[in-house]
Amino acid sequence: MTLNEAEPANPSLHDPVEAIVRAAESALTVRRRYQFFVWTQSYLSRLVPHQLAVCGCYDRAARELLFDVFNSVSLEPVLMDALADGRSLLMRHLQACWLDARGRPAAVQAAELPFASLGNVRDALLAARFATLLVHGVSRPQRPQEIESFFVFAVQDCAPPDSHMSRLELLIPHVHGAWQRVQAVERDFGGIAPAQVPAAKAGGVTQREREILRWLREGKSNQQIAEQLGISALTVKNHVQKILRKLGAANRTQAVAQAMSLQLLERGPRS
């Protein structure tokens, strides 16, 4: 199974209008970071497929856009750092491209990024097989230069067709509203972990379980993880079941999202 296992039951793959309505309705229930991650991996990814989502929200105290990165494939540190920093040359370039498009969804080609200033980041994007970045956001009314939220989506080995860009344009108010709500609720919680995940249980996640969580984030199956770690698929399955119990998660997607919220997936060497 992959991160997409959280997709809603009885999906309507052949009716994008109904899928958009469902995505909009379900967005209203999103209040925490892990819920947003699950929503993007299910309802949103059905309409705008992606393996990378970068979500930014203007922070009044910091007076700048602050970004979170949600990725289901491994990224080089130089790319992760650039995507997570609103002041990086990459994110400033992507915002400028969107503003040049007059607030419409824009497709930015990684190969066309300025080599002199973004060569390393460009190479990391191409190495991750993200040739095209789809960008969109929301600005303050009558003040297009004052960006309230900004989003980047990308899928490997595929340029977004016009239909995906049109869907994102329809959905952007709901993506914006859900992400703004998440920021407000997380501030109220002081950035602590979700209430249903006791700190003791989160602290009880072992290094081996964190390693398996990193592979789950990349969409690996039990057999694939077993081959990477030199253990049996049954042992991996047992580890996954323990992870689900410790994090209070119903499935792998929720477990990865919870782990991300609890900062259990910091980069580190795999054994």
Would you give an account of this structure?
This is LuxR C-terminal-related transcriptional regulator. There is one protein chain. The chain has 271 residues and is of the alpha+beta class. The chain has 2 domains: 3-188, Beta-Lactamase, CATH 3.30.450.80; 199-261, Orthogonal Bundle (Arc Repressor Mutant, subunit A). It is 50% helix and 15% strand. The chain has 11 helices and 5 strands. The chain has a 5-stranded antiparallel sheet, with helices on both faces. α1 (16-27) packs antiparallel against α2 (33-47), α2 (33-47) crosses α11 (252-261) and α10 (233-247) packs across α11 (252-261). It starts with 15 loop residues before the first helix and ends in a 10-residue tail after the last helix.
Structural class call reads alpha+beta
CATH architecture of the largest domain: 2-Layer Sandwich
* Main sheet: strands, sense, barrel: 5 strands, antiparallel
Q: Give the overall shape.
A: globular
Cα(first) to Cα(last) distance is 23 Å
The SSE string, one letter per element, is HHEEHHEHEEHHHHHH
